Structure formats: C-alpha cells, structure tokens
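Try this one yourself first.
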C-alpha cells in the first residue's frame, strides 16, 4: 500500500512541479540557471517508484514514473522514508538530516532544486502543514498564492497544465 501511495504522491508532485514552474516567477528565476534538458530523478530504494522531471523551454516537464539516467538524483533510502516525506509527516530538511534522503549530483543544482521544491510544497500543502515541513515559508504574496493554488489543484495536477 505504501508503494502505491508513494507512486500517486510522486505523480502529484511531478504534476505540481510542472504547474508551479510555469506560473511562479521565483521558480522560473531559479530554473534559468539550469541548461535545457537538465533532468531530475526521484527514486525510492530498492525498486521504485520513480519520478522523472526535465527542464524544457524554461519550465519543468513531468516525464513520468519510470527510471532513467538523470543529471540530479534524489534518492529515498526506503519506502518508509519516502512515505513520511511525501505525506508531509516530516519535512525535506529533517529527512536529509536523518539520512532518509540523499542527492547525487551537483551541490548548487541540488540546492536550486530544494528551493524550487519549497515553493512547490507551499502551493500543494495548506499553510498549517507547510509551516511544519518547511524551514521558512517562501515569500509569496497572498493573492498570488491563492490563485496559484487554485491553478495547481484544478488544472496542474489533474490535467498537467
């Protein structure tokens, strides 16, 4: 059941990442430093699930839930670690500190990913959950946050827009 739940949550994260990268100016600015075709893989040991993302035309594109070569790999130690992070029971900083997640790739690129991930999580989760899992809430104006959440919930995750 945890593997199925993690697959669904990775799908939602991928679609959310795609939606937020197309509408949030702060995320777009972070993505400028990545070259076109830069790929990211989230993987859960030992045998998945996986999430593939790629920078394409200035935004992140969700490529599916299959394993492939990537420039930056976010590796969850096991399904329990992935489940805790993806269900917002623990935050990404805590998961790194407890060695539940590791990253293989360039340090500056991984820091850029973490900053983008903070924005995506803030759009995906209500504020009371986001406060628990993020060290600092990103400085998003309330109006943009509300309209962004509506876009992500109605069009981003279900339709991939």
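Now uncover the answer:
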């Amino acid at each position: 059941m945890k593997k199925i739940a993690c697959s669904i949550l990775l799908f939602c994260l991928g679609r959310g990442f795609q939606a937020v990268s197309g509408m949030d100016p702060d995320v777009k600015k972070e993505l400028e430093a990545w070259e076109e075709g830069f790929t990211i893989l989230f993987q859960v040991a030992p045998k998945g699930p996986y999430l593939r993302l790629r920078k394409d035309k200035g935004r992140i594109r969700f490529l599916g839930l299959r394993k492939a070569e990537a420039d930056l790999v976010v590796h969850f130690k096991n399904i329990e670690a992935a489940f805790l992070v993806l269900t917002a029971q623990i935050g990404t900083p805590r998961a790194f500190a407890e060695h539940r997640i590791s990253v293989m790739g360039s340090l500056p690129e991984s820091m850029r990913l973490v900053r983008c991930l903070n924005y995506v999580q803030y759009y995906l989760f209500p504020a009371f959950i986001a406060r628990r899992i993020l060290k600092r809430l990103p400085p998003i104006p309330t109006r943009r946050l509300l309209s962004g959440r509506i876009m992500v919930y109605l069009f981003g995750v279900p339709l991939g827009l």
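Discussion: The beta strands are 39-44, 50-56, 59-64, 72-76, 101-104. The two ends are 28 Å apart (CA to CA).
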